[in-house]
Fold this protein.
Amino acid sequence: MLQNELSAVEAVRLMRGGQMSVSELVEACLARIAAREEAVAAWSFLDPDLVRAEAARLDRLNPGARGPLHGLPVGVKDVIYTKDMPTGHNSPIYESDSPRVDAAPVKTLRAAGALIFGKTVTTEFAATSRGGTTRNPHDPERTPGGSSSGSAAAVADNQVPLALGTQTGGSTIRPASFNGVYALKPTWNVISREGLKVYSLTCDTLGLYARAVADLDLLADVFRLGEPAAPRPLEGVKIAVCRTPMWERADTATRDALALGEALLREAGATVTALTLPPLFSGLSEHHGVVLAHEGKSAFLSEAVSHPDLLHPDFMGMVENKAGLDADQVRQAYDVGARCRIVFDEIASAYDAVLAPSVTGEAPRGLAWTGDHVFCSMWTFLHVPVVNVPGFRGQAGMPVGLSLIGARFSDRRLLAVADAVGALFAARGSWASGRGAAAA
């Protein structure tokens, strides 16, 4: 196995033990990027000299000063501030803008010894389904998803072991599914969003990418998402299968993946139950859209008044309330969301996890559109933790993931279940998860 293909857990173990230097890992990652950047285009900013200098500094640290993420390269979505790199939001307004401050999650990662590797491509302001330059590493003719396009693609392509994304609709989980990697959208607001571009304070959530659940657990420790949960053998685990009110939007690949996932869990001894959500949830996706349109109005006002010539009409439309939302619609959307959170926590607490689609199907062809987030937005609006578990592929050979969902603040228990479920899907599903595009 090449050094850039190591899991984060294995890489940090070797570096902390002196069996591999940070510089060696960095050179392997840089070599992979050099070989693949033309095909994948995951990075909006990458300075090899800066990365090498930071690797050398970390290599000089005494063993006792090495943190839990010592030397691990982390890609950072380009809507998250980094003090030594530009933060451009994929917008002409902020081209080459350098705020010279780290976002709170970046500070936390640096304090734990992580090496902030570079900025990954995002869609504009992480607030649109219009595609960017990044391509899916499994098929460059297809989208990697969005808006965390570069982060998901870089991890899937073995360019870095870890990356940060964000999710307001489906911007972490959808790219994870399309690229065949693990991702955690944690419970809303358990990781500080200070220093991230704001779109919707009600929904914006930092997301985490890795090629193994153990690597997500490593990040969960650093971000203090609760005590690690004990490993979960699948026999006796309670899983609710929820097709959601949007099930008719699922195509054959997702329908087959969910059916196979359910069958494999039953064979492994899990207690699997069909879950139909109450009628209150039927319009949740539409209410989510109302909240985004309403909060986008204030989020993009400053750009609209200061750079009206550079702001895309999509965002100008939010500021000008082109959707024609009135106060009653907005109040109803917030109130239904609040009621549904209470109800869903009660439902989900009866299970170890809820299994649901991550996406409508395989990654669409072309780069102009990042795909439908309809199977993600409901969970984002509910503020619950979600893990994309890879393990399947559709007729075109592209990855299709499934989501595991829990009640709010059950992140660590959900990761324990995801570890067992992911191992099962990798062994018995039709997609060898965790290997990256090079092995596909």
Observations:
- DSSP finds 14 helices and eleven strands in the chain.
- Residues 432-440 have pLDDT under 50 and may be disordered.
- The domain at 3-281+331-439 is CATH 3.90.1300.10 (Amidase signature (AS) enzymes).
